[in-house]
Amino acid sequence: MKLQSLLLAGLFFAGAFITEASGQGLTGRAYYKTSSTIKFQMDSTQTSPEQMAEIQAQLKKQMEKDYILSFTQTESMWRQAESLGGGPATASSGGMTMVINTGSADRVLYKNVADQAYEQEQDVMGKEFLIKDALEPAEWELSEETKKIGNYTAQKATYSRIIDSQRFSTGMTEMEAVKDTIQVVAWFTPEIPVAHGPENYFGLPGLILEVHNSGRILICEKIELNPSADPVKIEHPKRGKVVSREEFRAVQEEGMKQMMNRYQGKPGEGNQFTIRIGN
């Protein structure tokens, strides 16, 4: 069933449950582990399948990150946990090196499900931006399927949508407009009745504990509810030039054009690569 038609009712139930359970409202921290499968193609005459497999394995390990979602009934803050493994993901094999910039480790994403608004720190080619815009609700479909995640019973929810993307490969003279299909599987627990989740995911009648989106996986490993010794504090991101979602997308496309101008018409020089950006 489509969630949008019952989301308000679900949130009302959640709010009533929280108010009854605690006069101060529910707060907490959820600790997530993320991993990504890196897929890329390179010139087979210069890179063997074994080298590609080794590079993919190295990058996958380095892109495993730990994050913390701090939340109240209506607000949440998502940020990477402090770690010694910051910086770009780097892999090498057979004299070839690949570097993937995963962004600043201290960027903050703030969401307010009551106001349906978000604020997010991002950077493009060394320039910092602060996106402030309305949240985009997903049309979740709830399933009857459940499973245990830690001590909680989680219910399955899915959604899919088509987005407009831009694609550029070495040898191309201009960007290509393409359609991408996003398919997401999430697991949420009504036992923690808040509409929050990791990254940009939200809007289910319970905390989202696990997400699968193509090759990216987010899994909650630990939850702290109403921590009294270290109360939850929600911070707004502050760094960067304030822009809307569409303005930031235009900045991304301009950065991609600069990359295109640098490499266009050079299909035979070194390994080829493809860049794709979307919503």
UniProtKB/TrEMBL annotation:
Q: Keyword set for this entry?
A: Signal
The record, for Pfam families, names: Porph_ging (PF09697)
User: Which stretch is the leader sequence?
Assistant: 1-21
Name by which UniProt lists this protein: GLPGLI family protein
UniProt source species: Algoriphagus jejuensis
